[in-house]
Amino acid sequence: MSSVNVYRVKEMFYSLQGEGAQSGRASVFCRFSKCNLWTGRERDRADAVCNFCDTDFVGTDGQNGGTFDTPKALAAAIQALWDGGQQTIADTASVANNRVKPYVIFTGGEPLLQLDETLIDEMHLSGFEVGVETNGTRPAPKGIDWLCVSPKADAEVVLTQCDEVKLVYPQPLAPPERFNNIDAQHYFLSPMADPAVITGRDEKKANNMRLATAYCLAHPQWRLTLQMHKILGID
Ligand SMILES: C[S@@+](CC[C@H](N)C(=O)[O-])C[C@H]1O[C@@H](n2cnc3c(N)ncnc32)[C@H](O)[C@@H]1O
Ligand SMILES: Nc1nc2[nH]cc(C(=O)O)c2c(=O)[nH]1
Ligand code: SF4
Ligand SMILES: [Mg+2]
């Protein structure tokens, strides 16, 4: 008997990729529920393997969130957000520009707990390129077009090949040199934001930006990336 795969999605939205080498690219974000490194509950944060997470990935109650019974159903919802986003945000000239590749970013929570080859194939059938934001602790299904691995100090990375490494900095037990063995096209440092700051000035992040800048100046293999969406005040 084949098992029924249900996807649990916290939220989905159309925005600009705010981080890494694809920064500035219009994208549909599909944020899966659940992570293997934190429950997502504040009371568990201090004891979590990953304790600086800036994201709510608990449940399915966010915008356009829910459970999806089939890859086709989830792919259709993603397609609708791409189409709708273009209609409400983009000008008609770019809608007419059929050279633009629709782009979906699977994130979370930890997307590799749920993303499978069938869903990736379904997105490709709809003409999408598929990006993934992962902590790198789980094997990846075939067919991902852009893989971003963001290592966490206390979690073993099993993905040794990807398009970009995006290390949140600083993590005292995860100096950038530790990840030179990951075969990637790009190596980014992303200054750690204070998860307690929802709006207003993030003093810790301001200091982490200075530290990351100094590291990149001293080690040019690493480039700085900022969370552009937070600067812009978008999702
Ligand atoms: C919320 S995670 C979800 C995907 C996956 N679980 C991961 O960790 O890569 C998305 C991205 O946000 C980054 N991130 C999480 N908390 C952050 C923080 N406080 N400051 C900067 N980046 C953060 C993660 O490292 C990751 O690159
Ligand atoms: N605009 C925007 N860009 C992002 N890049 C990675 C994100 C994530 O949470 O995975 C993210 C996000 O949440 N919003
Ligand atoms: S691994 Fe990713 S989703 Fe999980 S707690 Fe850390 S940053 Fe958040
Ligand atoms: Mg985010």
Can you describe what's shown?
The chain has 235 residues and is α/β, with parallel strands linked by helices. It has helices spanning 71-89, 92-96, 117-125, 203-218, 228-232, and strands spanning 7-16, 26-32, 66-68, 103-107, 129-134, 146-149, 164-169, 186-191, 223-224. Helix 1 (71-89) crosses helix 3 (117-125). The longest helix has 19 residues, at 71-89. The protein is globular. Residues 35, 37-38, 50, 53, 55, 57, 108-110, 135, 152 line the site of iron/sulfur cluster. GO terms for molecular function: 4 iron, 4 sulfur cluster binding; carbon-nitrogen lyase activity; magnesium ion binding; S-adenosyl-L-methionine binding. S-adenosyl-L-methionine binds at residues 52-54, 109, 150-152. Mg(2+) binds at residue 55.
Architecture blueprint of SSEs:
Elements: E1 7-16, E2 26-32, E3 66-68, H1 71-89, H2 92-96, E4 103-107, H3 117-125, E5 129-134, E6 146-149, E7 164-169, E8 186-191, H4 203-218, E9 223-224, H5 228-232
Helix pairs in contact: 1-3
This protein binds S-adenosylmethionine, ligand 2KA, iron/sulfur cluster (SF4) and magnesium ion.
The site of the ligand Nc1nc2[nH]cc(C(=O)O)c2c(=O)[nH]1 has 11 residues, from strand 1.
Catalytic activity: 6-carboxy-5,6,7,8-tetrahydropterin + H(+) = 7-carboxy-7-carbaguanine + NH4(+)
Binding site for [4Fe-4S] cluster: 35, 50, 53
Binding site for S-adenosyl-L-methionine: 52-54, 109, 150-152
**Largest sheet, strands/sense/barrel:** 9 strands, mixed
Number of strands: 9
CATH class: Alpha Beta
Radius of gyration: 18 Å
Mean of all residue-level pLDDT scores? 94
GO molecular function: 4 iron, 4 sulfur cluster binding; carbon-nitrogen lyase activity; magnesium ion binding; S-adenosyl-L-methionine binding
Cofactor: S-adenosyl-L-methionine; Mg(2+); [4Fe-4S] cluster
Family: Belongs to the radical SAM superfamily. 7-carboxy-7-deazaguanine synthase family.
Pathway: Purine metabolism; 7-cyano-7-deazaguanine biosynthesis
